[in-house]
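tool_call: predict_structure(chain=1)
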Amino acid sequence: MAVAEAELGQVQPRARINWTPYLLVLPTLVYLGLFFVYPMVQALWLSHTDPRSGALTLAHFQRMGGDLYFRQAIRYSILITALAVPIQVALGLVIALLVNSRFRGHSLFLYVTAIPIGISDLAAGLIWLSIFTERGYLNAFLGAAGLAADPITFLTYEHTAWLVGAIVLTEVWRATAIVMLILLAGLQLIPKDYAETASVFGAGRWQTLWHVTLPLLRPSLQTALIIRTILAFQLFATVVTLAGRQIPVLAGEAYFWYSLYRSPNVASAYAALILVLSASITLIYLRALRQQEVEATA
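tool_result:
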């Protein structure tokens, strides 16, 4: 009894807190706070306040709504996103599946397809401008092959569809590598036992892909869709390089209102609109994919 009472009377030492995970995450949190959270809060504040009195107002959104390019910017931003993102996801999935199959030379194929990930929007726009311009590489090839007697003007306001097509093609070439790497990482996390079990039960390659691989890849697909959609709404440098202001987009209008018209408040209103659209699309993705997952498990 005396020994038990002595043991109970001893003060239990407190468990030591391991600060290592918090210290490792701290630089990321500081970076996100300085370059994402603070600018976002500042933009939301500028879009709702009067620059003179500091009072809350919706005048900047009204001015944005009355802008000559406002409706066109919304239309072209949604159109480019709706065209580019599905192509990027589909092409990125095909490339990821090819690399994951580990065919001979898959490492070199991965490196080559991943090269555009290191190219900026502006550099990609300049590269494809040198291809599509009147004296560019495409016209030089067509002339040398005897397919065109005179240079063809691809980038002109008379053919808006060609301008949109050039922008979409440039974005597909530049940003598909991001989707491919996300999906490839997801594929490598799927155990091979699932595919082997499916083959034992007589499932072919397409059946295994559709009923086994894609359902297990849903989190990676969701991440790729969200990231690419958000970045597509922020597209600016590629559009300006290839089409100037003939194809207005929301991020471009925010830039022009800030730099040309010297109105950071209206530019912040455009930024707030981009934020709302990106958040809305993200919620739609999350709800749609979650609903599919619930139906699949039901």
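agent: The chain is about 75% helix and 0% strand. Proceeding to next step.
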